[in-house]
TrEMBL record:
It catalyses: O-phospho-L-homoserine + H2O = L-threonine + phosphate; O-acetyl-L-serine + hydrogen sulfide = L-cysteine + acetate. It comes from the Bacteria. NCBIfam families: thrC (TIGR00260). It comes from Thioalkalivibrio denitrificans. SUPFAM superfamilies: Tryptophan synthase beta subunit-like PLP-dependent enzymes. The keyword Zinc does not apply. This is Threonine synthase. Its cofactor is pyridoxal 5'-phosphate. Belongs to the threonine synthase family. It holds the Pfam family PALP.
């Protein structure tokens, strides 16, 4: 028999660490198994001896890390007999919900802030046939409405308050440990609702405990769905570092923010849903929160695209912007290994990318002469 290598998604790959049964119908689009790319050029530019890797979650099926959580959430919703799912979203959750609902043959209702989601994400939600409800309000208003409506209508919430979401998302940490042979010293993420930073910590804790035993009361995060045994840590765990956009930084203010604003619309979130657990993650891991200005975020997005050939969306670049600053100021010491999660693909938001591209387009007639001139002038 030939060795079968077809990759069939993260639930199949990490089945023994996820809350599924042998006969569960898996709703998958082959998510997970994303590249961990070592940065070659940027550390040299920064002039520090550090190993920086980017986990390119933009290469998931719908272009963001949300697919990891959505394969679990939709699989469980279908298993429980649900015919419809609902979420509030700054864009990526709605894209993933729409796609996985299409795959499962159920209906997705998505609530998005009017005019404040990137074009690519809107295109996805519409194209996959979800019911797109635009509200005159922001993500936080949408989240409140989702909770209220789910109390009265037969719909399953697939925002990250659905515990199966974090179970799927924790697998990113598994992949990183398996690829590096150990956990990194620092793991940097952009923070909005703080679901993903929590999910990664669950994953690192579970993996480092080296146990498949389900001792639920030991785990403060998973609400009973992970395999973290607690106590005996046999592997290393990273310091978890969360970066927010300055105009949308409740973890820096120490309080909810009512009118969040940032160019990084994915993390335009003032009332994070995983508030308590994110603080615990920071404390347990010895990490910290910090903020980046929109200018820093866009500069990091551009640096990564121009110097490494990796295109992420603005929110994702907050992880690198913050990490580079903390490498330069010594908070992250030389000799460290760092993973930055690039949560979403740059193609999600072409308008912001084009608007911040400084190189002018070179417009010429369709003649050899003019094209040659354009090349010589720009060598
Ligand atoms: C690219 O899609 O909340 O801290 O509704 O799309 O786990 O919320 C998106 C969040 C980071 C923040 N980067 O993750 C949504 C949504 C990107 C994102 C985050 C999001 P969390």
């Amino acid at each position: 028999m030939p060795f079968q290598t077809r990759y069939t998604g993260l639930i199949d790959r990490y089945r023994d660490r996820l809350p599924v049964h042998d006969d569960t119908r898996i709703i998958s689009l082959g998510e997970g198994n994303t590249p961990l790319i070592r940065l070659n050029n940027i550390p040299r530019i920064v002039g520090r001896e550090v190993d920086i890797y980017v986990k390119y979650e933009g290469l998931n099926p719908t272009g963001s890390f949300k697919d990891r959580g959505m394969t679990m959430a939709v699989t469980k919703a279908v298993e429980e007999g649900s015919k419809a799912i609902i979420c509030a979203s700054t864009g990526n959750t709605s894209a993933a919900a729409a796609a996985y609902a299409a795959r499962a043959g159920i209906t997705a209702f998505v609530i998005i802030p009017d005019g404040k989601i990137a074009k690519g994400k809107l295109a996805q939600a519409m194209m996959h046939g979800s019911v797109v409800i635009q509200i005159k309000g922001n993500f936080d208003d949408g989240m409140r409405l989702v909770k209220e409506v789910a109390d009265e209508a037969p719909v399953t919430i697939v925002n990250s308050i659905n515990p199966f979401r974090l179970q799927g998302q924790k697998t990113a940490a598994f992949e990183i440990v398996e690829e590096l042979g150990r956990a990194p010293d620092y793991h940097c993420l952009p923070v909005g609702n703080a679901g993903n930073i929590t999910a990664h910590w669950i994953g690192y804790c579970e993996y480092s405990s080296g146990s498949g035993d389900h001792v639920t009361e030991a785990c403060t995060f998973c609400k009973g769905h992970c395999t973290y045994a607690g106590g005996a840590v046999v592997g290393n765990r990273p310091k978890m570092v969360g970066y927010q956009a300055s105009g949308s930084a409740p973890f820096m203010r120490g309080a909810m923010v009512d009118n969040p604003e940032t160019v990084a619309t994915a993390i335009r979130i003032g009332h994070p849903q995983s508030w308590d657990s994110a603080w615990k993650v920071k404390e347990e891991s010895g990490g910290w929160f910090d903020e980046c200005t929109d200018e820093e975020i866009l500069a990091a997005q551009k640096l990564l695209a121009e110097r490494e050939g990796v295109f992420c969306e603005p929110a994702s670049a907050a992880s690198l912007a913050g990490a580079l600053r903390d490498v330069k100021n010594g908070k992250i010491p030389e000799g460290s290994s760092i993973v930055c999660t690039l949560t979403g693909h740059g193609l999600k938001d072409p308008e912001t990318a084009i608007a911040q591209s400084t190189r002018p387009l070179v417009n010429v007639e369709a003649t050899l002469d003019q094209v040659k001139r354009a090349i010589m002038d720009n060598m």
